[in-house]
Amino acid sequence: MNTSYYSRITIVLFIIGVMMAVLYNTVQQPVERDTRDIWEVREELAQEKRRHSDLLKEIRTLNEVMKRYENVAQSSPEVALRETVERLESDVGLTTYTGPGVQLILKPSPEAIALGTTLQPVPPGLLMQLVNSLYEFKAVTLAIDNQRMIHTSAIRDINGKTTVNGKPLAMPPLAIQVGTMTLEEAKKLKSQLEASSLIDSFYLDDVILEISEPQEDVVIAKYANDVHVDYLQQMDKGD
């Protein structure tokens, strides 16, 4: 009888001890509260909704392409294969791009010219930041100083010179052609660039970033170098 009584007391005290430990830990480490105001939360929500809308558009586009390929493949497999190859070459950058977009000009700032400051190459890190922002703003393709950017392109500092695809860039002024899916997206890209901090970042390096008005017929030359594929081999025609 006494043993059962003491056991119950022990269990009750153990439970009370655990509850007090949890309560103490909660008091010592309070849950961090979200300190953002309502407008910050609304802006983040709006960004997520825009991202969700863009994903839905891409899914619809891919579904339409898949249906078109299925219909063409049933009637003419050769045509479907040729269209697929042409589309892949266009996506990779092996064909000349002609379509809507904008042109950017990087040129020395008036202060640098007035003071006779020695011109320096555009810093690779700053150029990479610009390229990443352009793709984030829905650019589909671009060329820097006539060097077409593809998925394997690299921007590096080689012996003090900024290079794209292994080719040294010219000193400012130099042009950057940017292609977009539609003229509306080109206008939106221009607005996003003007609202970003990139213009100030270039200005700190004595470079002015000018953005042209959106155009319907931006021309971007195809990628001039060979595309190296590590894990694929071309089959002989007799195979």
UniProtKB/TrEMBL annotation:
InterPro entries: DUF881. Residues 38-72 form a coiled coil. Keywords: Coiled coil, Membrane, Transmembrane, Transmembrane helix. It comes from the Bacteria. The chain crosses the membrane at residues 6-27. Belongs to the UPF0749 family. PANTHER family: UPF0749 PROTEIN RV1825 (PTHR37313), UPF0749 PROTEIN YLXX (PTHR37313:SF2). This is DUF881 domain-containing protein. It comes from Metalysinibacillus saudimassiliensis.
